[in-house]
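Hi support team,

I'm opening this ticket because the web form for multi-chain structure prediction keeps timing out on my end. I have pasted the exact lines I submitted so you can reproduce it. The total is 696 residues across two entries, so I didn't expect it to be a heavy job. Is there a limit I'm missing, or should I split the entries? Thanks in advance, R.K.
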Amino acid sequence: MALSSIWTKTQIKNIHQKSEEGKYQLRGFGANMPYPNLDDLLIVPAQLHKTAYDKYREKIDSKVVIGENLKRPMELEVPLFIAAMSFGAISKPGKMAFAKGISKLGGAHFTGEGGYLKEERELCDKYGGKLVVQWSTGRFGVNMDYMKVADAVEIKLGQGAKPGMGGHLMAEKINEKIAETRGIHQDTDALSPCRHLDMESPDDLKKHVELVRELTNHEIPVIIKLGPGDIYEDVKLAIKAEPDAVAIDGGEGGTGCAPHIVAEHAGVPTLGVFEPAMRAFKETGAKERGIKFLVMGGIRNGADVYKALALDADACGLGTAAMIGIGCTGCQQCHTGTCPYGIATQDEEKTAKLDAEEAGDRLANYLQATREELITLTALSGHNDTHEISKNDLVAKNINASAITGVKLIGYDKPVTAWFDK
Amino acid sequence: MTNNKFPDKILKLDNGVESIFLRKLACSFRHGTIPKFFARHLSFNTIQIYWGDGALSKGINKEIMEQLKKEKKAVVDKVDFEDNVAVGIEDECPIEINGNVGDFFGALNSGGKLYLNGSAGRFAGNMMCHGEIVIDGSVGDGIGFGLYGGTIVVRGDAGNKIGQMNKGGTIIVHGSVRDNVGLYSLDGDIIITGDAGSQVGDWIIRGAIYVGGEIDKFGENAKEYELSQEDINKLKNLFDKYDINVDPSGFKKIGPEKLRPFYKTKEESQGGAK
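Hello R.K., no limit was hit. The queue was backed up. Here is the completed structure from your submission:
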């Protein structure tokens, strides 16, 4: 067989499948194709110009606070959270493991769409974590109980894996518990529309923020989550709605089920969200007003977190990495509901294999190691506070990454964007 | 009801906007939709007029909670198009609001018995779980979005998108409604004594829509079913309870054609585009 750069085995198989079935391919996870990513950036260690800190004996601060001026701001001991994954897409033991794992580090656990489990709140309380509930397009499980258990509310407009699309949780995955939590019938598909049907214009987003604040006595933070669309314009509009944080889920962000063609070809890689988002933040004075910037989508390790914080993020969400931390091996068959590890399934036989307590401990191990990586890199780059790291602590390996992020290109002391400045 | 020749228009008249004609016209009507006759004169399909910015409730909810605590009921006068009035009420007590309110009146109501003597803006009763909302006036778009339970009664006309994503509540509009009634409805009943616009029951999955007047057009996956005696009795009981003097026996009933309209089976997908 002749080799071709575009008629790959995968592409040929995809065409055969569509010819057979008349349907496009669905799968789990986010983008697979090579994107410019955070690996294209490197960290500048301290030598003389900067002084390194000794991470073994000098304290390195990594705390972040969202909603500082509120009665109940959300204080995270680490700039990490478990990104939203719904109960329905994820099994009950999976959700419990996420809650336990991140809470042991003092981070935040996002419920995703689909309501919350009381076990999630209990585990967050027990281990010192925060619970962030989601206000999404399907509004499943949203009621006053839901609002009252929250430490913050995330108004979701989109996600990285399928920006501009809603979601379908197929009836096959809706068991009795999910139906009860979501407030729907068991034999119905749970449809989340592609947009909030009770938002008729971007101005209505502010009305939703105000409604959420009124429902929560103006005490807790409100976060607006966007998919990777027209970042600059979208972030400007999100900031106009006056949330406490704006979150963007980059193109590498995962899902339990999305069309393969959308996961691959729609959206902007995470590396590409920082510059336009920060331009919007600067023009609106958002940072000065205390609005935080959260990023998720393909965050894997402490280096990714460092680089994201250096590019002006305040905290990072981990979704796919958290799933892998509790046992996922990345087969991307989440949409079939047959996850052999009991994570992305509701099959009782399979979910019984996932021990929530043990999985939570494993996740905590991974997150602790990730935090240690972040602390190590922060210290060696000459900082004792993760808030202090900046673009000046990075270099770009190639022209693309330098142009995308505005980070200096290795071998030069300027970003390539300076070539175009007049 | 909808004439595609003219655009829809929503006008917000703040204090800074000079429009003496529209102000005088608006004073003649309750907040909400100006009747077709006048709208067409101005070359619009309808004009919804909102006074002010629909600001936050500014302490109205605090006042309500204080009254509920002391007297197990609340009466609030002189509301002026504020948004988010009486949201998230969990006390199963009567609350009377006199005046016109803005958007999201009674959102996430979880037991309150809300009586509004006036008109409401958009999305009244948004995600109500249980309890009752009775509005003696007209309402804007989107009443009862995502309703989980309870009953909403509107004694007046309503706008577009009534009962979208209804998950099990009851909405009664003793008047006419515009387009997209019951979009993505998952359960519950929507009852319109007057006319309904286009796309009625669009992508309805479960539940029923009853219309006493004319229907412009059915939506996708919506079909008409024969009204059963059980349906008639259900409607009669509701009408009696809310003093609606209408005979339900001639109503049209709209329900879902398929439970899972979004997914084609393998056999349906194969064989090329249709």
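A quick check on our side: The first strand of chain B starts at residue 9 and ends at 13. Let us know if the file doesn't open in your viewer.
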